[in-house]
Amino acid sequence: MPNPNPAIAIRGLTVAYDSVPVLWNVDLTIEQGVMMGVVGPNGAGKSTLLKAVLGVVPKLAGEVEVLGKRFHSDRQQIGYVPQRTSVDWDFPTTVLDLVKMGTYGRLGWFRRPGAKEKHDALAALERFEMREFADRQIGELSGGQQQRAFLARAYVQEAPIYFLDEPFAAVDATTEKAIIRLLKDLRDEGKTIVIVHHDLTTIIDYFDAITLVNKKIISSGPVSTAFTSDLLNKTYGGPIKNCGIDCGFAQPPVQLRHSSPPRVTTPPTTTAPSVEAEDA
Amino acid sequence: MLEFFDDHTLRTVCLGTAGIGAVSGAIGCFAYLRRQSLIGDVVAHSSLLGIMVFFLASYLITGEGSKSLTVLIPGALLAGVASLMLTRWILAQTRLKPDSALGVMLAIFFGSGILLLRWTQRATPNIPGKRGLEDYLFGMAAAMTQSDLWMIGVLGVSSILVMLLMWKEFKLFTFDPVFAQSTGLKVHWIDTLMLLILVVGIVIGIQSVGVVLMIALLVTPASSARQWTGHLGTMVLLASVFGAICGGAGSVLSASFSKVPTGPVIVLVATVLFMVSLTAAPRRGLIARLIKRRKLEKSAQVVAAGGGQ
User: Fold this and answer.
1) Has the ipTM of the complex gone over 0.85?
2) Contact B175 A88 (CB under 8 A)
3) Which of A97, A101, A164, B107 sits at 20 to 30 Å (Cα–Cα) from B122?
């Protein structure tokens, strides 16, 4: 039976680290079955937005509903792929064991993963083309393989919604394309996928929906309406070069009212290589 | 050597220190992986203050200071937990970095402990029972009584049981705390429980190993074990065995030289094991890595000389 509610509904969310607000009064709705990119400058609160929904960072104010119900982390509704660099890959464990960790949540206290969990984990590795690495030490994986292992771990969570925090940071182009294909497959199976993303040039290719964020939500919706040059300028505090759309470089860059200088001030060149708005 | 094993006291002591080594080796693996050696060291040093306070309290109540672990270990536990809670509070209230906060805490607790120890030793009138208190600095396993062994056993076995019961939670939280929390794990409780077990693993060793060197028995067997294996379970088991060897052999060795504190001898045994692991372990060992490097150099030279592609 289809659930008519949006995948995620956030109302009035404010999050602060210490006394510095990172997200301010955020309202955001993410429909089911979309692949959404969350984009904004460094420190804009993109990762924090995911973590606040997951209950990993405390909310100062606001409410989060997941599929129409107040969010509880133990309902296992959101599979999470943290930033790859957030863990120590020298940890003594194998790829299979790492993926099995995705089943711990539904197992609950004291129960150990058994044959079913192993089967699920192997299937997940198969899906992310990592089956032959199952018995490998996680420390021996390349960056792209680590990312696939993390994705497989989220996949065995069997959640209707996935949150991915910069899955393409320091991953080679081939792996990125392969991962995006696998994620699109998941989306086509009806999963909702939310990705913190940096590379503005690939947004139109990758996503159906986008949220531009810089402490507050600048825009959110289908890429065709929510990803425009004006909105991007507003998000980054100045014109952006090579963002996959016409970002206003037909005219000279406009100085915005912001006191801070625009992020990118180099004059436009049509032949310039693709430049990301910022580093990962 | 053989007559030692007929000696009832020495058997008690050897069994006790081997048990302590086994428990702290296992617990030490999680401390090692969570990079909590400094936290462990602060707990160990801080426990001296708890020992002194409880010793003096028992003197005030009964007229003679007690050196039974049944009395002193609760004191050590309290002091260890107090030092960690204070550190946590300082970190929440100030912008001090964790290592500085821990360093300050170690200085305060250990300094006060030493002060009380010196005062107790020199106080007039004489405080009965004070002889041998200074052994808590560097350990004197021979002081272990049957009741001490029981205390160590009960605490050690229960902390290992908790660890086994919570195995997957401990593992997940140690590897990826943020993901753990996102799956609904009550990470605050796990963290607290793991710290508590760490404190227990430390205080059961203070009599035999001493507060100054106890951290070595916690971290060295774990570091050695990591060299040999890439599986957490095997690592914990191996560290346990290493710890037991260090504890058992160390106490027997130190008993054969009279008046040598046990702690340094145990730690020396642990160091030897560590050196062997560091050099000889397959894959991670120095020798294995050297051989691999040589092979690479050779094939690179062959390629450069045009002998291959």
Assistant:
1) yes
2) yes
3) B107
